[in-house]
Amino acid sequence: MSPAAGPATSLLEAVRARLVRDGAAPSPARVAAAVRAEGAVLGDAELLAVVRALSAELCGAGPLEPLLADPEVTDILVNGPEEVWVDGPEGLHRAARVRFGGEEEVRALARRLAAQAGRRLDAAAPWCDARLPSGARLHAVLPPVAPEGACLSLRLPPRGGMDLAELADRGALAPPAVRLLEALVQARVALLLTGGTGTGKTTLLSALLSLAGPAERLVLVEDSAELRPRHPHVVRLQARPPNIEGTGEVDLPQLVRQALRMRPDRLVVGEVRGAEVVSLLAALNTGHEGGSGTVHANAADELPARIEALACAAGLSREAAHSQLAATRAVVVHMVRGGDGARRPAQVCVLRRDGTGLVRAVPAVVVPAGGPPTEAEAFPDLADRVGTDWRRGRP
In terms of pTM, does the model score above 0.85? Predict the structure, then answer.
């Protein structure tokens, strides 16, 4: 086999399969070890050339490399060889100059990225949901699940956190809204950020955590490392998916329990979407002030139902779920995304129990696009907790 001609397909497949079995990231050293383990007899120079070729094949992202390097891109969606879409500040649009050579090249890239995550993607396992070593979230599907050809999506991790001033400069926050959010953090109220996918929940939560006092210890629990607070004392715990044999998983509920034993001043769950909601509710009710998390919800008033559904699936009764949610006294900040792609908070709500004992999210402040916050029904409740100085501004 000549290095110039590229590695044989059989060797490439054998090395890829070995790395997936081992659950190892395809670093040059591990690729070299896998080549040797396959019994290939090569000289040093030839081995180096083959390792380089295999590393490029196993690690590269091909036509997507320029998009991965763009700090403004948050999502990359590949629907076929000539259909690549990206999401960012301007909203979802087609990447006009990005093309693949054909369906097989898209499929090869999907398998390559799955191998990076130590996952299998082939006819027997035609879908993959995994986290790449870079922190990006990968989802890929192959035929016959995707009858028109392989599709993949990448949710890219934030390149760096922004503070509230930078969000204001981008037009996401008016000055009174900045002061209100600062007051929420300083009052150490529990915060739940809601919104749909891509509305900026994680970005805003990172900015709010950056406002915590430098003497406070932040313990972050995440499925994928996305929060980037600018803070001197941050401890990260990150979930781990099962390996190809289905073992070794470390899930969010386990990590939340561990985080509670790590003396957090603020416990943060990056995205609440499963049984970890029970541990988070318990944490917010046991003296851990200033805790926070994000929850997918299309509207702020849907939050109680969303929490109820997650908590009941995890074993709590409906009454217990609403009782614990009410006891958190959390403030809800709901995020939206406008037609122009701008992400911003639209409402700040407080939680109230109604006559049936169920919790409702009641608007306290409404934040119009580009305008100052206005008072709503539950404003007195919010004012009791954070004051009203934020309305007058700084001297």
Answer: no
